[in-house]
Please model this.
Amino acid sequence: MKNDLKEIIFTADEINAKVRELAKKISKDYENLDFVLITILKGSFIFASDLVRNMDISTNINFMEASSYGNGTTTSGELKIKHDLDIDIRGKHVLIVEDIIDSGITLSKLKNILYERGAGTIKICSLLNKPSRRQIEIEIDYLGFNIPDEFVVGYGMDYAEKYRNLPYVGILKPEIYTF
Ligand code: IMP
Ligand code: MG
Model:
């Protein structure tokens, strides 16, 4: 798998240090709140599991699979909810945990859906952000790193369902993906 990468941009240690920092901030901000954490599958499963293990407050951990991606590397703009919450979020403080924000379409649509369901507050925590790709403005409350417009994999993120299990984040060689 490593041979398919052009470059490793964040090592496991660098990611770990950042995750701890984010978990500390979140723990402080949500300490006395009725708090629901929503992991966006599949890309965020590793980030979220490291994040919650570094938080020292109790949290209600939930999952949604919502994506605007097919097997390619560009967004289709359509949001599909493939797996939904099984809890009522009315009046709850919601924290969405995402792997990477690109166009912003997925999360802005998801945020609207969750507000319609009566969420009290909604904040976003994303490991990575590609600001140059934004199509819809979206506020990121807790951000790991900004990255340039490159397709990255590892630490939960895939290309065609591969590379999620790499413990670091790397840039995929362009010849690996085809449109
Ligand atoms: P958005 O709606 O364009 O912001 O799409 C965000 C989603 O696209 C992320 O949750 C990822 O699943 C996927 N995505 C965007 N950029 C990358 C990337 O560089 N590598 C892997 N997945 C990506
Ligand atoms: Mg994702």
In short: The chain has a mean pLDDT of 93. The longest strand covers residues 93-101. Strands lie at 5-10, 35-41, 60-67, 80-83, 93-101, 121-129, 142-146, 152-153, 169-172.
